[in-house]
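Course assignment 3, question 2. Fill in each field.
Student: A.L.
Task: Predict the tertiary structure for the chain below.
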Amino acid sequence: MEWGTWALVALGVIAILAVAVVTILVRCYRRLTFSFDSVRALPEFEFSTGAVLRALVGVVTRNYTQAAGGLLKGLKVEGIIVCTNQSFTPLYLPATEHKISVEGSLCPCEVRLPAFWLKPHAARSFPVSVALNNECLPQVAIAVLSGKGVVRVEVRTRAKIGLFSYNRVTHLEPSLWRGTSVPRESATKKSI
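Answer field:
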């Protein structure tokens, strides 16, 4: 064979190997999972004389947002973000961002995790604690009270991996009234 034929064969082999490597990496990243575990919603109340009076005025004037906002001073959502590599190769994860919304609030909290390598068939946990802004509390308080103490939390996970992006939406429903949280994961969407 001539030099040109060898060059074409070599280019063909390189192209096939490149496609195989990209296919394997895409399959491995598709086996990557993020979960938000051990979720707890912790309300912070203020029972000072002024706060109780503001709440009573809100109830009398049927302004329930003011009533709830008078007593509720904060809501902290705690949990653990767990990243699991279920593939046979180590995976590099650049910085990931997680937007946490409580009761569909217009004030989502953002958590960024650093870049890291994840070994095959391994998991890595990151404790997370976010506090809601005061401007979101009245809306959240009404939703929690009407939902019998269940807090609806939505976690949107996004990671940019080269030319691809990893997106996932997780819905959880921990209860305020139970001593422990019982998260319920539903409506999960993942794309890469």
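Instructor remarks: Strands lie at 32-45, 72-85, 91-93, 96-102, 109-113, 116-118, 122-131, 153-161, 164-172, 186-191. The chain has one domain: 32-191.
Grade: pending
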